[in-house]
Structure formats: C-alpha cells, structure tokens
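TODO from last week: model tetrahydrofolate synthase.
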Amino acid sequence: MTATEVSEAAREIEKLLALHPKGFDLSLDRITRLLAALGNPQERLPPVIHVAGTNGKGSVTAFCRSILEAAGLSVHVHTSPHLVNWHERYRLGVKDGKGALVSDPVLADAVRRVAEANGGQKITVFEILTAVTFLLFAEHPADVAIIEVGLGGRYDATNVIARPAVSVIMPISLDHQAYLGDRVELIAAEKAGIMKRGCPVVIGHQEEESAREVLIETAERLGCPTSVYGQDFMAHEEFGRLIFQDENGLADLPLPRLPGRHQYANAAAAIRAVRAAGFDVPEPAIEKGLAGVEWPGRLQRLAGGRLSHFGPPGAEIWIDGGHNPGAGHVIAEAMATFEERDPRPLFLIIGMINTKDPIGYFKAFLDLTEQVFTVPVHGSDAGLDPLALAADAAAAGLEANAASSVAEALGQIAELTDEDPVPPRVLIGGSLYLVGDVLAENGTPPR
C-alpha cells in the first residue's frame, strides 16, 4: 500500500472521525463499557509491557521489541500516533520473526466490529482504536505485547490492563499541560497512574528530580518492585561501546543503532524492562536487538526519495518528530554530537501545532543553527501559521523565515549554501504530523 492509496481500514476510520469528536476526553468509563461489549479482550493478552512518558516512549518500545524479537519471541506492538498510515499503530508478532504491520483487511474488519459493538454511543476515535488494539492482540497469539500510552497515563484508554508484566515510565517534561497539569510533578503523577499494585515498575532517566520523586513515591506506595535509572541500572559509552550495568553486573554491548546520546538511557530502560517483565533474554539477543533496532521518524536520516532532490547536493537530511522543550534539548544535543564528528552548517525546517511550546523548543538550538525555516503542517488542522512560528523562533534568538513547504525551504537552503565548500546538515521536525507529511511526500512511508 502506498502513501497515496486510501485503504479499506482508512475509509472505516474516516467514517468514525466524521461521527465522533476529535481529540481526547480522558476517562476510562467509555473504553471499559466498549471492552465489556467486546468480551473484555484486554483480559486475554500475553504479558504486557506498558509504556508511558513525555519523551522516549517510542524509542524504548522499539528497543524492547527489537531485543525480544532477537530472542525469537513474537511481539505485538501498539504505538500512536501513526506517521503516514493507520496500520503503523498495530504490529502483529510472528514467531522467530520481526512481525509485520496489520494487514488492511484484518484492520478494517476489527474497526468495523468495534464500531458495531459501540453502537453509536458517545466515544472518541482514539478509544475505538485502542479497543481495536486489544481485540487484535487477543485474537492473534504472541509471547508479549508492548503497549504505548497515548496521553498521560491514569485516564488514558490503554490503562485498563489490570496486571502488566512491567510498567515503564520514561522521561517526563512539560507537554499537554491543558490535560495533565502545568507542573512537571503533576504530569508525573498522571503518568504514574499506569502503575498497578505489586507489579514491576521501571523508571527511566528523569531530568527533573521532582518528577523522579513522584514516580518513586507512587511505586513505593503501591508496593511495586521498582528499578530506577541511575540507582538500580545505568548505561554509558566507553570506547565506542555501550556499557550497561545493574545488580547482575556489566554488559559490554554495541552502541544502539538509533543515534543520539539520549538513546543510551532509553536502551538501558528497555533492557531493564524486558528483564523486569520476566524474560530471560541472553546477551547475544540484546546485542542483536540494539544493533538492529528501527524507529521511523525519530532522528531518521532521509537517504534518497523525492524531497532530497530539492535540497543542496550532498546535504545530510534528518527528520525527527520531537515537539516539546525536552525533546528539543535531546535533539539539539544529538545535532551537537554530529557537529563534533562531522562539522557542517545546520539548518532547521520546523512545523508545529498550537498545543506546543515553540519558544522552549527553539531555545535548545541557540548557537547551533544557521537559520530556521518554518513551514505549515498539513497533517493536522491545529498547525501553527509559519509566520507566527517564525516569530517564535526569532523570540528564541534564532534567525527565521517562513516558507510555504518543506520543498521550498530545502530549495532556499540550497541557494544559501550553493557556494559553501561543505554541504549542510538539515533537521526537519517539530511535529510528528510534519514528519508524516515528509515521509509521505518523500515516498518512504514506514513499513
């Protein structure tokens, strides 16, 4: 299926989008009612690794999947949002293989059955799609299911899992304040809502001490066996290798395939989560998993495709869907690392939606980037006007100009660097919607 084809499943979901309100309405009442009408498929899942956090959810999910599959286990994976096609949200595991995105007929059938069970009652489309996750994962056997939280934790539609094999809380920072609170400790309390009494918990690296304290206190109150990054496990680079350490000793591993120093802590959280969930994965499988991990749209390098023809010859083009100040910090750190190893002028092409903090994101790139080009986000009706976004970039201290498209921005960068001896590095990001637009336009959707 190409990015331009309209699938049967997409048509079914579009019907639901026309019928039900967009966005989130945080509550477990509707999803609980719907799942009961479906025979409670969430009670028939394989062991579940449940993942929450502001940043790093997708990366730790990808690491867990890669490690478990390298050990020969079949792994179901639920993530959101998708980048290009709805099918990306549902990966069905197969024994001794990498699994595959759900086929279109299977997804379309599941969506129809869930919608029929709902009977037109008030609900959000995200809740229907979450029920589809549970239905698919219950009807297709697998050894483990990795389920990523959509928003928050306590009242997220995925939080109907009574006994997860492990709950994983990744880095927490300010995001979705209208739903989760305007202080990081309030957001941490919401995300800690996925912890279940007596079930193992893994707490990933936390920049904010107040968030870390809330998570640890909640886990202790619930009697959860708890592993905390920097206390019970950790990882660092040494001589081009990743050194992972926990109470079992040291493991000398390859650096993760996903670029950026922040991925060391994400990989460590995944290793710890797999072990805490009860999977005795041998070290060669961990090595294979780190070396083979894939996570589209997160510090992904565009190698070819239609858009690359608009940019400067020899340019290094990266895409990343990070969209909050915390994500801006780790992406900027990655760009600085690239600069140390291979100096190139850096240009940003950024599009964002109106629920984010553009100035906080842009500040992370001070003294790193030559210029910012702001572009519209076509995949969301909440996209910020490029002129307003350019003003935000300027307020953060960056030189910025608005462009009508990514292709136009790449063309302008090509003109600016035409006589430069070193081709530039370009980062396209600020929104997963924009990254999805880019992958679709480039002709390289996730598989």
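Done. The radius of gyration is 21 Å.
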